[in-house]
Amino acid sequence: xxxxxxxxxxxxxxxxxxxxxxxxxxxxxxxxxxxxxxxxxxxxxxxxxxxxxxxxxxxxxxxxxxxxxxxxxxxxxxxxxxxxxxxxxxxxxxxxxxxxxxxxxxxxxxxxxxxxxxxxxxxxxxxxxxxxxxxxxxxxxxxxxxxxxxxxxxxxxxxxxxxxxxxxxxxxxxxxxxxxxxxxxxxxxxxxxxxxxxxxxxxxxxxxxxxxxxxxxxxxxxxxxxxxxxxxxxxxxxxxxxxxxxxxxxxxxxxxxxxxxxxxxxxxxxxxxxxxxxxxxxxxxxxxxxxxxxxxxxxxxxxxxxxxxxxxx
Amino acid sequence: xxxxxxxxxxxxxxxxxxxxxxxxxxxxxxxxxxxxxxxxxxxxxxxxxxxxxxxxxxxxxxxxxxxxxxxxxxxxxxxxxxxxxxxxxxxxxxxxxxxxxxxxxxxxxxxxxxxxxxxxxxxxxxxxxxxxxxxxxxxxxxxxxxxxxxxxxxxxxxxxxxxxxxxxxxxxxxxxxxxxxxxxxxxxxxxxxxxxxxxxxxxxxxxxxxxxxxxxxxxxxxxxxxxxxxxxxxxxxxxxxxxxxxxxxxxxxxxxxxxxxxxxxxxxxxxxxxxxxxxxxxxxxxxxxxxxxxxxxxxxxxxxxxxxxxxxx
Lengths: 313, 313
Prior knowledge:
Two copies of one chain form a homodimer.
Chain A (H helix, E strand, L loop, with lengths): L16 H14 L8 H12 L5 H12 L4 H22 L9 E2 L2 E2 L1 H28 L5 H15 L4 H9 L8 H24 L6 H28 L2 H4 L5 H4 L5 H5 L1 H25 L5 H9 L12
Antiparallel strand pairs in A: 1-2
Helix pairs in contact in A: 1-4, 2-5, 3-4, 3-8, 3-14, 4-5, 4-8, 6-8, 7-8, 8-9, 9-13
């Protein structure tokens, strides 16, 4: 199975705090606004880019892309693209017609300050810029890799992924509401975005069929575990800890594993999923050490049981 | 200045009704939904794709792309992409927090039947699929052409284009409301989408600087004329003629040239812009006959004064 070797100067350093600072700056530099843009739209965009959360996805994409041979600049573009898509999904999810949330990342939601219209337009601007950045980062790759990236974006973000998952989420009250129903939504909404963040930067390495199967399994374990932790936080957390409006899932009849199963079984499930994810990463590294970077992210994605509440999206 | 010659079998036929039927079918085939997608989201997407209006942009993109050497399949993908972006912008513009429209294309707006959330998600699904289709249609082009396409999509759709124009549109009441202010919004909202529809399919022909200048001028004339006709329809039209909610611009203090200037001067301006567009098309064809297809679209874009009311978007 062929894979690209790293260029000498492009070998990634560790996921250092210096690189994190660079990513935070890149998010602001690449934000889709400029002087002269209407003031409310401009504010939503600059505020969102300036309060980017833990950047789990961006850091994963950046390190993965550099590991698999993309230049630091292309890796940065791809990391910003995935983070902007995540950001857009949060702006949209919080809208009154969706989750009607009041707080996000410890601050009032954008639509509560600048209105729904400016918030929707800001989300569209982030999505549009995300596509530009993702496509730019792949511009020098082969046609085969570029077509695979197009298919990945289409399936992860569209009705088969994020958008379809959000639609199921909103109509969850019409489903039987079992743990299985909760997981179907988590697979579409949460696992899809991890799959995007894991697969896109790995495409230049042309993973083998075995590697693709393991990466996909990892994203399912990560997605389900991450969402279950989020569900725990929604049920028993406080805004001060999570930065979000708590109790929204039960109030809105939205999918929540801790509501469906109870808190202790949900904690147990998170632990089981976490163990499966760790085992999958070991299988990947056993086949080739180029997947070692995944280890560093496991703790970011799946908090240890003691820290399961600290999960600001 | 180099340009590609047409492949034998790819030479476009006239913009026949047969091809229009193919495009209508392609829009439905490429619509971003499938069995199993949540029912309301599925309905908004299939309804929108099944009632595509006059397809001015899709027909222009399709004929232009085939003229400039894209395969019939790539041209179809690009035409669907531009039409889906237009469709998404209509779904978003009609929302209660934007224009709060009740009718579009002679039917109740999507959000009045399926709710705001499903409508927003459908728009996102159309945008996502549009990027997949546009990128696929360019997959075999050179890196230079692909990067130009990325830049075109970014500037036409983002805060420098459609999204930025919509933001100005919504806050128009805060501007002096002169004809110039109206035109600034029309340039961002309407001319941008024509520029997308004209430039994207022409990129494989690597237009000269002179051609690019003329094409840009044409899109400005077309955009301003099209929007002014739309403004006339909003002011003095009826839902039965336009398929849209009339009188929204005045009711919502939105930009409308006919409100700012009066009806007769607006009609005169449409006629003047139409003459400038025609002159520009002649200049392009004088330089190279490959731009002849633009003539056929002039009448679609800028209705003759007698027909200025018949302008269903």
